[in-house]
Sequence to fold (564 residues):
Amino acid sequence: MSAVTTLDPAINLDTGYNFAYLDERTKRMIRRAILKAVAIPGYQVPFGSREMPLPYGWGTGGIQVTASIIGRHDVLKVIDQGADDTVNAVNIRRFFQRTTGVVTTERTVEATLIQTRHRIPETPLQENQIIVYQVPIPEPLAKLEPREAETKKMHGLSEYGLMHVKLYEDIAKFGYIATTYDYPVMVDDRYLMAPSPIPKFDNPKMNMNPALQLFGAGREKRIYAIPPYTKVESLAFDDHPFEVQRWQQHCALCGAKESFLDEVITDDQGGRMFLCSDTDFCQERRGEVASTAALVERPLSGSV
Amino acid sequence: MSDIDQPILSVKNLTKRFGDRIAVNDASFDLWQGEVLAIVGESGSGKTTLLNCASARMTPDVGQVSFRTRHEGVVDVYKLSEAARRLLSRTDWGYVHQNPADGLRMDVSAGANVGERLMALGERHYGRIRNEAAQWLSRVEMQQDRIDESPQTFSGGMRQRLQIARNLVTRPRLVFMDEPTSGLDVSVQAKLLDLLRTLTHQLDLASIIVTHDLAVARLLAHRMLVMKDGCIVEQGLTDQVLDDPQHPYTQLLVSSVLLP
Ligand SMILES: [Zn+2]
Fold:
């Protein structure tokens, strides 16, 4: 498998659309929302979400953010649950290939722009990278307080006791904080934020990350951001501190101990093994991917 | 004038209209530390609107509500920032709803219901929060081992006890109650009234209780205030008002209770 796809001949640039599908006015509107989001880390900025050629739930928020910032020289990586080859990731990658003609990659180190659902790559991100998260439910308090006017007020006044009520319930029920995905965080000591359904294993990666992190929720019409090098703290109690998932096993393919592992059923006799969820990370460790840096100039992202 | 000589809550010339209708007309009263005041009247008399305006849950059209804070002297409640007002209402104030479901989070455990205010104030030690919640369950005469149960499984009386514990956990000095015992069986009501009387006394609570039931006023309130058509028609010491009502409307209310 070739990691860098330079204009797969099967996927032609479709000149019937504007670059990256969205018209320039819409992109400017979304960029303004992004700038505001960057200026107020963790704050949910409303935006005029557009109809996309995908139903809600398929990453329309993330796609609109990506479409608004992608430039001709960007190198795009799309992951879903850590993998580049799932249907959702393939569809989104193909969408951008057809509407922008940009170079795509599966290698985290080569990407300037990464759109993701459910994971942050294991390979540490760099200053010249932007990661765009697909967000189904942007409001971390939504399940606890259904009234939107009230949650807005809570954000405005930093009244976040309710989030700890949820963690309290976890401990009361299970003896530990059982929330494992979309684990709430405080951004820059000010705004409570839903990190999207990434495993809490990935939460520490958000803290002081050199890359720009953008979050797009299409159905809920919200964009939020974590600028580079911003403090991101996972909520916890003093006597029940935040902890990430750990495994007894190593990755069956690359032997990694410190990566997020998926349990895979290997046969119908109950055979199972553990594999890195981040397929690029696993391949890199196995040395299967030859460097393709020669194929790709490493330009700055975002310049159209 | 030293603060302690001031009422804890002072309502002056409060008026609230709903369209053309005047729900509360020029109401004034004072409430003192440790005092229980009953607001009595029939439905539609404006008693709940007066309670809501006095507790900053509903902005009056005219009038002033002053509260004597612990550390910052007397403040005009409606001149506080919204943040300060919300902080006040979840620390030094309590509000007990008639329907416990309106005052509780029905989908989290009893312990979390009681602990929420502590967490809102920044308490981040699970063990301490739980301990405090358990103690408050005891104080409202609930079994501590029900701490992890959902209020959904509780009877009406238990839910009301839980709502009271949830309010008292921050040791408020002023608690507003809207018909806290109505809708309960008579025997449950009597026990809850006993509990409220004990707690307000032990904690030196100031309290305003809205009720249509003169027996509740008789049992709990030091003073009472009778409302009719948005106006306070009579106020005074509870026994005086009930034993020697001056206003014809109060006389009518009292005599209707005495009928067999
Ligand atoms: Zn691996």
